[in-house]
Amino acid sequence: MANFIEVGHSKNIANFEDLISFCIAYGTTYNPANSNITITALQAKHAAALADLQAVKTAKTAIDNATNLREEIFAPCRLLSTRIISALEAVSPSKLTIDDAKTINRKIQGKKAPGGKKDPKGEVSPPPDPGTGDKGGTISTSQQSYDSLVDHYLKLKETLSQEPLYAPNEVELSIAGLTTLITNMQAANTGVINATTNFSNARITRDKTLYDESTGLVTAAFEVRKYVKSLFGTSSPQYKQVSKLQFKAIKS
């Protein structure tokens, strides 16, 4: 459906260029009193529509790039947290520290806590997380959004920071390494959010340029048809030229 809609926008713009060409060919006969459909106004609308269409394509590419980067940064986080737990256990910290770290790791892994709906500390799994498709009831689906994973890693880092025995030589397992990872995770997530906002705004601008009821490209196309009809008549070849061009108001 999305591809069909995008093709629809492009087709409207392409047909509008044909419409302008016909109007120019009518010479001085084409002289509308409506300033919205003069040749100059039509050309300006066409140029703006092309620019706005390209802006949407550029914004969509930015979303794809930001999403790919975020997936790349988040991809190793589950394996890494498992390694962290092993590194923590290797230094024999207190049982409470191990339990806390394992609880957080379980949430990172998306696994159900032992015994069903409660974790070892007796905390009930949280309510559904909007946007994740979760129906509630288990940790396995309720805390797997990117925001949640960042939050879990912040809590894991805090837990590890309180354990003086935890000082691995491996950079990626160290507190400093976790700090860098969390910073990158947050930046990548923000990048997707900002790219999504830019894409949404670009679509709003494009849709206004093409489909505004007063000044939009499609509205102007229908006004041109009516004007050409008034100039040459319903059965004229000129009106047949412009009436065969299809324009549709498309809602994104």
Write the layout of secondary structure elements.
Layout: H1 2-25, H2 39-74, H3 77-89, H4 95-109, H5 139-142, H6 146-161, H7 175-211, H8 217-232, H9 237-243
Helix pairs in contact: 1-2, 1-8, 2-7, 3-4, 4-6, 6-7, 8-9
List its salient traits.
252 residues, mainly alpha, 2 domains
Written account of the structure:
By secondary structure, this protein is an all-alpha fold. The protein has two domains: 2-72 and 196-243; 92-166, no CATH class. The chain has nine helices and no strands. The termini are close together. Residues 117-142 have low confidence and may be disordered.
* Helicity, as a percent range: 55-70%
Share of residues in strands = under 5%
Number of helices: 9
The whole-number mean of residue pLDDT values reads 88
Main sheet characteristics: none
Calculate the terminal CA-CA distance, rounded to whole Å: 10 Å
Order of helices and strands: HHHHHHHHH
Give the assembly state of these chains: single chain
Shape descriptor reads rod-shaped
Low-confidence stretches: 117-142
Helix vs. strand class: mainly alpha
